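Title: Comparing notes on inverse folding

I've been comparing how different people in this forum approach sequence design from structure. To keep things fair, I'm posting one structure and asking everyone to reply with a full sequence. Here's the target:
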């Protein structure tokens, strides 16, 4: 892999993670606010559990992707969260509502497949 490919992976990993963490931070503050949770429910799962899982996939996992630690493993919950967002939460919505979830999904799948590159914690360890 050449230098520019490593730069590209770092730009993708850092950029998409920072953007996603903005969404996850709102969910984190809702979880810790002490207020009643008003979140989407699905298949009998409580809103609190789904909010926690969404926060994990949108804040915790992207943080690990951002720093490049256990990157491929961290990409899995991010991918799952975006699949749920795109194909369950936004099911039936027009494409302009679903598009962001799909773009994040594509980016996190690319990170899952390509890894973090050498400019990451994983890359420093030769993983």
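Reply #1:
Here's my take.
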């Amino acid at each position: 892999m050449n230098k520019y490919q490593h730069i590209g992976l770092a730009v993708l990993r850092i950029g998409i993670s920072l953007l996603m963490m903005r969404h996850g931070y709102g969910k984190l503050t809702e979880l810790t606010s002490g207020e009643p949770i008003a979140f989407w429910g699905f298949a009998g799962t409580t809103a609190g559990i789904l909010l926690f899982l969404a926060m994990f996939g949108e804040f915790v996992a992207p943080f690990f992707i951002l720093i490049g630690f256990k990157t491929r493993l961290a990409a899995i919950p991010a991918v799952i969260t975006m699949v749920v967002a795109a194909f369950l939460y936004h099911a039936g919505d027009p494409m302009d509502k679903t598009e962001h979830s799909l773009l994040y999904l594509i980016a996190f799948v690319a990170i899952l497949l390509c890894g973090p590159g050498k400019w990451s914690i994983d890359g420093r360890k030769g993983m």
